Amino acid sequence: MESIRSRNLQSALMSLEADAASAGRGFACLFSDSDEYETALIAERRAQGRYQAPRSRWPIVMLLGVLLMVVGTVLLLS
Fold first, then answer.
1. Which residues contact 59 (CB under 8 A, 6 or more apart)?
2. Rounded to whole angstroms, how far apart are CA atoms 13 and 28?
3. Inter-residue contact 51 to 45 (CB < 8 Å)
C-alpha cells in the first residue's frame, strides 16, 4: 500500500512539474530586452499613424500677423 501511495505521489509531482513547465512557456516574452520591446512598440505606433505631426495652421497665421505688424509699423513711421 505504501508503494501505491508513493507512485501516486511521484506521478502527481511529475504532472505538476510538466504543468509548471508548460505554463512558463506560455508566459514567455517575445522580446529579449526592453530596447527590442520599445523598438517594436514605436514601429507599431508609427504604423498606426500616432506620431504624425499635427497639422496646425497657427504658425502660418502667427507669421502673417507679425509680418502685418512690421509692415504697419514701417508704414506708420515713414
1. none
2. 23
3. yes
